UniProtKB/TrEMBL annotation:
<dbReference type="InterPro" id="IPR000524">
    <property type="entry name" value="Tscrpt_reg_HTH_GntR"/>
</dbReference>
<dbReference type="GO" id="GO:0003700">
    <property type="term" value="F:DNA-binding transcription factor activity"/>
</dbReference>
<dbReference type="InterPro" id="IPR011711">
    <property type="entry name" value="GntR_C"/>
</dbReference>
<keyword id="KW-0805">Transcription regulation</keyword>
<dbReference type="InterPro" id="IPR008920">
    <property type="entry name" value="TF_FadR/GntR_C"/>
</dbReference>
<feature type="coiled-coil region">
    <location>
        <begin position="70"/>
        <end position="97"/>
    </location>
</feature>
<dbReference type="InterPro" id="IPR036388">
    <property type="entry name" value="WH-like_DNA-bd_sf"/>
</dbReference>
<keyword id="KW-0238">DNA-binding</keyword>
<protein>
    <submittedName>
        <fullName>DNA-binding transcriptional regulator, GntR family</fullName>
    </submittedName>
</protein>
<dbReference type="Pfam" id="PF00392">
    <property type="entry name" value="GntR"/>
</dbReference>
<feature type="domain" description="HTH gntR-type">
    <location>
        <begin position="5"/>
        <end position="72"/>
    </location>
</feature>
<keyword id="KW-0804">Transcription</keyword>
<dbReference type="Pfam" id="PF07729">
    <property type="entry name" value="FCD"/>
</dbReference>
<dbReference type="GO" id="GO:0003677">
    <property type="term" value="F:DNA binding"/>
</dbReference>
<dbReference type="InterPro" id="IPR036390">
    <property type="entry name" value="WH_DNA-bd_sf"/>
</dbReference>
<keyword id="KW-0175">Coiled coil</keyword>
């Protein structure tokens, strides 16, 4: 990797971290001149870095305006969760079908460790659980789509409702059900429970954002 590309990669990673932590707010302008001064580089690496953030969907480039941290419309948020439901249900099913005992034991450990990390002062994120399932799916393309595209966008979307409470305990209980299905080698149940989990997450998000009537309907054959 050339020095210029390495610099751009470093800048992109730095800005991405700030965006996903909320230090750079949705809608905030990412001015090339200000960023070039901040990172003590020319505008070339800055443009490259911003292009990378646009490519993964957490920044938008507006003609004659510049690049901004992405803000999601209700329709875009719904589409993101619809895609998440499909991909993660497939990942959970494949994990139940393909994973070995060592991987299953690791998932069980992660499921319980996550509870401790979500406690007072913890730094937990349920992305750890979902990412592990994606790895266990044995499908490299699915893993890349989730880890490099979908999850960064979801993390940015959640900045809108970061102060919401009440969903965490239910989500962790749902993780246990999914984990049990994967460990027992039941791909159909693992897929159904994951779909239900994502739908519950979307409904909770809709409630927090006051998206009237936006929650998806339960599909035929799913648990209710």
């Amino acid at each position: 990797m050339s020095a210029s590309r390495e610099t751009a990669s470093h800048i992109a990673d730095s800005l991405k971290s700030e965006m996903l932590s909320g230090d750079l707010a949705p809608g905030q302008r990412l001015g090339e001149a200000a960023l070039a001064e901040r990172f003590s580089v020319s505008r070339g690496p800055i443009r490259d870095a911003l292009s990378r953030l646009v490519e993964i969907g957490i920044a938008v480039s507006v003609p004659n305006v510049g690049t901004r941290v992405r803000e999601f419309t209700q329709s875009e948020a719904r589409e993101l969760y619809e895609l998440r439901e499909t991909l993660e249900a497939e990942a959970a099913g494949l994990a139940a079908r393909r994973s070995n005992q060592v991987e299953k034991d690791a998932l069980v450990s992660l499921t319980y460790v996550s509870e401790d990390r979500f406690g007072p002062g913890g730094q937990g994120t349920d992305n750890d659980f979902h990412l592990e399932l994606a790895r266990m799916s044995g499908n490299g393309l699915l893993l890349r789509l989730l880890s490099e595209q979908l999850y960064p966008q979801l993390m940015l979307l959640r900045i809108h409702s970061r102060n919401a409470t009440g969903r965490l305990g239910k989500a962790l209980n749902e993780h246990h059900g999914i984990c049990d299905a994967v460990v027992s080698g039941d791909p159909e149940l693992a897929s159904i429970l994951m779909r239900r989990h994502v739908q519950n997450s979307w409904k909770s998000f809709c409630d927090r954002m006051d998206y009237a009537g936006a929650a998806p309907k339960t599909k035929q054959g799913q648990l209710t």
